[in-house]
Specification:
The protein is α/β, with parallel strands linked by helices and 292 residues long. It has helices at residues 10-24, 44-54, 104-110, 146-169, 203-212; strands at residues 4-8, 28-33, 57-60, 71-75, 88-92, 100-101, 115-122, 132-139, 186-187, 220-224, 227-237, 250-254, 257-261, 266-274. The protein folds into 2 domains: 4-187, Formyl transferase, N-terminal domain (Rossmann fold, 3-Layer(aba) Sandwich); 192-274, Formyl transferase, C-terminal domain (Methionyl-tRNA Fmet Formyltransferase, Chain A, domain 2). Helix 1 runs parallel beside helix 4 (146-169) and helix 3 (104-110) packs antiparallel against helix 5.
């Protein structure tokens, strides 16, 4: 039987461990825990607690622990791992070769993809370009928040992990299927600037952006009359003919909820908070308000 070091971060990493530890405990030699202060809950505490409950050795990423196992596996990981590529297993939130790179699930939700999935692959010199070991997918319907997508994609993690773990338990070397380079697409890293809404987009797309950037992420942002705010929930509503269309202007207020003009369509803002204090800005009383 092969031995395995797990590099785990976020809820996805914790869930994979929780879903597989009962069946494949003998594989698991060590867990390396990563943290992400930008998330509401990075699940580091839950991962550590599970390791201690099941007698699995663990260490913090910042301790730079040595890897002395046959294979290493990364889930939700964002740092380079110094380990032979042909023995490094990576889990990625897309059906590769589509959405190589960062935040693939967020990008898929913003684009309105109706199918999301997970790929287990071997490492490579270029990120997310290694041979594919296993894939699983599910269909989703909109509206869909990132929190719901993470919940639903857990089944894909479970399916691909069980497939790969079973092969590791057999003691055989892992081999994968090369990716189709001609079909590859990429998803870029995001920072605070990418949370800012472009009101020239369509209302349905902006609604998907709001849903995709919600908890555990910081939330889509906008300036409201010059002050930074976060939009927690918004709904696209029927458009009207606007002779002097100006995206970002409030066209009306429905029971205290501002309806904002978009590049096409209108967006009703259901949850709006001050970015600094998290205090609700609704009901909005100033009709002549501009979102920018």
């Amino acid at each position: 039987m092969n031995t395995l070091t797990l590099f785990l971060m976020t809820e996805k990493g914790y869930r994979l461990l929780a879903d597989t530890v009962d069946t494949f405990r003998d594989l698991l030699a060590k867990v390396i825990v990563g943290r992400d202060s930008a998330l509401d809950d990075d699940y580091a505490a839950q991962t550590i607690a599970l390791c201690e409950q099941r007698g699995i050795a663990w260490a913090e990423r910042t301790q730079h622990p040595a890897i002395n196992t046959d294979y290493a596996m990364a889930v939700g990981w964002r740092w380079m791992i110094d380990f032979p590529e042909d023995r490094l297993i990576v889990f990625h939130d897309s059906l590769l070769p589509h959405y190589r790179g960062f935040n693939p699930l967020v990008s898929g939700l913003i684009n309105g993809d109706t199918q999301i999935g997970v790929t287990a692959l071997l490492g490579s010199a270029q990120y997310d370009a290694g041979p594919i070991l296993a894939q699983a997918s599910i269909e989703i319907a909109y509206p869909c928040t990132i929190a719901r997508a993470i919940d639903e994609i857990a089944a894909c993690y479970r399916a691909t992990a069980l497939d790969v773990f079973a092969r590791l338990a057999s003691g055989t070397a892992l081999t994968g299927m090369p990716q189709d380079e001609a079909a590859a697409t990429y998803s870029l890293w995001r920072d605070e600037a990418d949370y800012r809404i472009d009101w020239n987009d369509s209302a349905p797309r902006i609604a998907r952006i709001v849903d995709a950037l919600g908890s555990p992420y910081a939330g889509a942002s906008t300036l409201v009359n010059g002050a930074l705010a976060r939009i927690g929930h918004a709904v696209a509503v029927a458009d009207v003919v606007i002779e002097n269309r100006a995206p970002g202007k409030v066209i009306r207020i429905d029971d205290g909820l501002p309806v904002v003009v978009c590049g096409s369509g209108l967006l009703r803002i259901v949850e709006l908070t001050d970015a600094a204090t998290a205090v609700s800005l609704l009901p909005l009383t100033r009709f002549r308000s501009r979102f920018s």
